[in-house]
Amino acid sequence: MQNKELLYIYCDGSSRGNPGPAAIGVSFQTHEGEELFYLSERIGNATNNIAEWTALKRGMQEAIQREEKKVKFRLDSELVVKQMKGEYKVKNVGLMEMKKDCDLLKQQFEFFEIQYVPREQNTRADALANLAQDQT
User: RNase H type-1 domain spans which residues (predicted)?
Assistant: First the structure.
């Protein structure tokens, strides 16, 4: 069922080590902050930056799978946000691939916005990443 409303997607990635065991958390919310669904997944060993990019990519993939067309992504990774917007160059080869993937996914939305938010405004996504990290 296609949602015509704007979907707010909060993403966070974490790595214990850097590189080390990594996980992502993604919370899909209404404008009012009601969580509609979420992702909390381990992604193997990765750097923190790879984890942040993976959270964005998985959030985009899930939104597309659910036929969401209008999305606003919120991340507490200023690096990923600025790289995605083209304000910072991506120099790391692994991150270049992630950006290419996300640029392709972005084209499938009618409306796409990405914004940096302070950590305090991204607590649910952070908690979901930690939940995945703590699973044994």
Answer: 3-134
